[in-house]
Design brief:
This protein is mostly beta strands and about 130 residues long. It has a single domain (about 20-130), classed as Beta Barrel (Barwin-like endoglucanases), CATH 2.40.40. The protein contains 2 helices and 6 strands, in the order E-H-E-H-E-E-E-E. A 6-stranded mixed beta barrel has the order 1-5-2-4-3-6. The termini are far apart.
């Protein structure tokens, strides 16, 4: 059934010019409490990574593997940058499996007007090298 697009409650602006998308990676489940104990999975994916588009990384003088700070109106986290074209220009992706970089702490609890669920997947952020 087709529906009308409803933009996120918080869009990028001059203070927070990028869009953050949070989510999972293949190797971990929910908060990672169990999967971070499995040595095989930790060998493959052992730390919080923030995926950044190569063009955004170039303009912000960020390199693959450098530490970055993502700041929203609700707080900030730090993690390692992964420069990749998996994310579009103007967006960053952060997984929420690692408590030392709690990406969900950056999001807001605005309710979707149709589904009535919190909009935890997207918010406006700024990104900087630490």
């Amino acid at each position: 059934m087709p529906i009308e697009h409803i933009p996120p409650a918080e869009m990028p602006d001059d203070s927070y010019p990028m869009l953050l998308n949070t989510g999972r990676v293949l190797y971990h489940w929910h908060g990672g409490q169990m999967t971070r104990r499995a040595q095989g999975l930790v060998t493959i994916y052992d730390r919080a990574l923030v995926e950044i588009n190569p063009e955004d990384a170039f303009h912000k003088e960020l390199e693959d593997g450098c530490r970055v700070r993502i700041t929203s109106r609700r707080g900030a986290i730090e993690a390692e940058a992964w420069v990749t074209d998996r994310v579009p220009l103007g967006m960053v992706f952060a997984n929420f499996h690692f408590p030392e970089s709690p990406a969900n702490a950056l999001t807001l609890a605005a309710l979707d007007p149709v589904a009535k669920i919190p909009e935890y997947k997207v918010c406006a952020v700024r990104l900087e090298k630490t």
